[in-house]
Amino acid sequence: MKATVMAARNARLAATVALAMLLASTQTATGAETYIRDTEIEADIQTMMAPIWKVAGLDPNALHIYLIQDKQLNAFVAGGQNEFINTGVILRAKTPNQLIGVLAHETGHISGGHLTRFQEAARNASIEGIIAMVVGAAAAVASKGSSGSGAAMLPAEGVAQRAFLQYSVGQEAAADQAAMSFLDRSGQSARGFLEFFQILQGEELLSGVRQDPYLRSHPLTSQRIEYVRNHVERSRFSDVPDSAANIDLLKRIKAKLEAFISPPSSTLAAYPEKDQSVVARYARAIAYYRIPQLDRALPVIDGLIRDFPKDPYFRELKGQMLFENGRIAEAIAPYEEAIRLAPGAALLRISLAQAYIETNDPAMNKRAIAHLNDALRTEDKETGAWRLLATAYGRDNQMGMAALALAEEGLSAGKKKVAQQQANRAKALLPKNSTAYNRAENIHRQAEERDD
Q1: What is the CA radius of gyration of the chain?
Q2: CA torsion, ordered 35, 41, 45, 48, to nearest 10 deg
Q3: What CATH number does the domain containing 359 carry?
Q4: How many structural domains are present in the chain?
Q5: What is the pTM (predicted TM-score) of this model?
Q6: Rounded CA gap, 73 and 343, in Å?
Q7: Which of 388, 422, 443 is the last residue of a domain?
Q8: Quick check: 29 pLDDT over 50?
Q9: Do residues 122 and 133 make contact, with C-beta atoms less than 8 angstroms apart?
Q10: 79 belongs to a structural domain
Q11: Which parts of 24-126 fold into alpha helices (H)?
Q12: Which residues, 6+ apart, have CB-to-CB distance to 36 below 8 Å?
């Protein structure tokens, strides 16, 4: 699991925000946000969501799940077929059906082609940039909703917000209807979605905030609950239980998340030694590694690898434990085994490539280049991976390719000048009319078309 901390930047209110299930009025545009990348959790959520995405006419392989470390209840879509979800939603979900219902709603926004103005602004942004735009605009709406002075200070901006939010009310209703349809057509209950709405209603009552309805990002929770409740009363799928597989997936997702983001002492209290379930052993291994007590963590993860030799994620965790404790050479074997078991996991390839680079072995550095190029075919918004690739090319004395990778990083991060400068540098070093040279020209052209 990798966590990236980024500072949320102010967003233009004209660049509209993909609708969140709940916008917290305490969020500020200057607060620090952390987003998490974890191959296992993302893959497990994709497994649960695949039936929904298929009936929605979407390619499950083309969608991305991104986690934001935030205990508040929030989910949104942005930048194409990307679904963002706060860890708070996952940890508060009591059943897989609740989580699936929330993301079925977000899928409704994607299939409905909603929020096209925001999508245009976000389609070329990095993941950090997308989150910053959403959080910044959300904070602006929330602050004006809780203060009578906001609209008076910026009347034209207030009118623009009202126009957008009136439009989003219709989109929310359409996304709810789409979610109900997707759940029915995939043979799943909408009861979990109703239960989640009731959680939101409780949050709304606790807040005590009385906002201008035009400055709300979604219809009143009570109105939406009524629609979903009526559907649950009519649908023949309302009593369909969660599958045992989905129940196990959610249990493991929650245990892993809690172990990584909660204090290790809390994890060890929640999963005492007497609990020898797989989930408990996994959580304890993470807690010991985070303390750090590697002498206790490694035997636990080795036991899980022995008992479940085909599970790539136990091997990934062992590689991470060793790498982050400076045992680079030892980390390589478990990472390689993880990729052998999950060859399509791009994030695992990035982790292995980083370990290869840190060995300072020229042969392993070449392997890092191959793995990073493969991973970046699907993870081209991962700016850190482009930086690693530039480092690997530099150590291999391929300076033109290093400059090209830095240009890709600049383009992905929305750094127009960096992208242009590095693209020009790459063109000066690469053979003219080669594939890499032509890519450098394209990067320069794409950067030129973007706003400063």
Answers
A1: 23
A2: -170
A3: 1.25.40.10
A4: 3
A5: 0.85
A6: 33
A7: 388
A8: no
A9: yes
A10: yes
A11: 39-55, 87-92, 96-111, 116-122
A12: 1, 2, 3, 4, 67, 68, 69, 87, 260
Asked if the structure places residue 35 within a domain, the reply is: yes
Domain shared by 446 and 340, yes or no: no
Shared domain for 238 and 122, answered yes or no, is yes
Residue type, 40: E
Q: Which of 122-136, 301-315, 353-367 has the lowest mean pLDDT?
A: 122-136
For residues 379 and 385, the answer to whether their CB atoms sit within 8 Å is yes
Please tell me the predicted confidence (pLDDT) of residue 2.
75
Whether 73 and 180 map to the same domain: the answer is: yes
Picking from 196, 217, 244, the residue at the C-terminal end of a domain is 244
On whether residue 294 sits in a domain, the answer given is no
Q: What's the full length of the chain, in residues?
A: 452
The answer to whether position 421 is within a domain reads yes
Distances (CA, A) of 279 to 133, 250, 253: 36, 11, 9
Contact (Cβ atoms closer than 8 angstroms) between residue 300 and residue 308: no
Q: Are residues 123 and 182 in the same domain?
A: yes
33 sits in which H/E element: strand 32-37
**Residue that is written with structure tokens 């292995």 in the block:** 352
Say if residue 191 is in the same domain as residue 111. yes
Long-range interactions of 120-126: CB distance < 8 A, separation 24+: 120/15, 121/12, 121/15, 122/15, 122/18, 122/78, 122/79, 122/80, 123/79, 123/80, 124/411, 124/414, 124/446, 124/450, 125/79, 125/414, 126/381, 126/383, 126/412, 126/413, 126/414
- Asked whether the predicted pLDDT for residue 252 surpasses 60, the reply is yes
Residues 109 and 197 in one domain: yes
Residues 24 and 43 in one domain: yes
CA separation for the pair 272, 157 (Å, rounded):
54
Q: For residue 30, is pLDDT > 70?
A: no
Concatenating the DSSP letter of every residue in 246-306 gives: HHHHHHHHHHHHHHHHS-HHHHHHHS-TT--SHHHHHHHHHHHHHTT-HHHHHHHHHHHHH
Strands laid side by side in the 64-68 sheet: 2-7, 32-37, 64-68, 82-86, 75-77
Domain that holds residue 353: 310-388
